[in-house]
Amino acid sequence: MTTTHLPAGEGPHYPMIDGDHVLKASVEDACGAFEVFEVTAPAGPMAPPHVSPWSGVLFLLEGRITSLVDGTEYAVEPGGLVVVPAGTPATFEVVGESARFLAVTTGDGAGQFFADFSRTVPADRPAEASLEAILSVTARHGVHLAGA
Fold this sequence. Notes:
Blueprint: E1 13-16, E2 19-29, E3 32-42, E4 50-51, E5 56-69, E6 72-76, E7 81-84, E8 90-106, H1 109-120, H2 131-140, E9 144-145
Helix pairs in contact: 1-2
């Protein structure tokens, strides 16, 4: 593993329906792998809960969100965090105008998923209008909508 420095605002951007995901680091060493994303999310309706094959930690930097994990709602304010175990239905909704958070995910699958989703699903269209493309991307990466 090598040392990496990434200035503010830099990193690959993956614009998605629920916000701009910026890859800040992808790390793999003898202990495992993880990825770090900075996410800026606008206000909008809560997406349906979805299940990912990776675990994630969401650490809120700015704004407020409501996180729904395995049927339980959590009000998250700056400095708060939510852990989402792999295989657990989860989603979030921004409370107010926008929110910014760090998302740390296990393995290297989230970045591949975000990149594919960003290329395939228009970020400026409602999810309902892109459902076929969404289901195609999620299937390719082992992600599925809860209950689907």
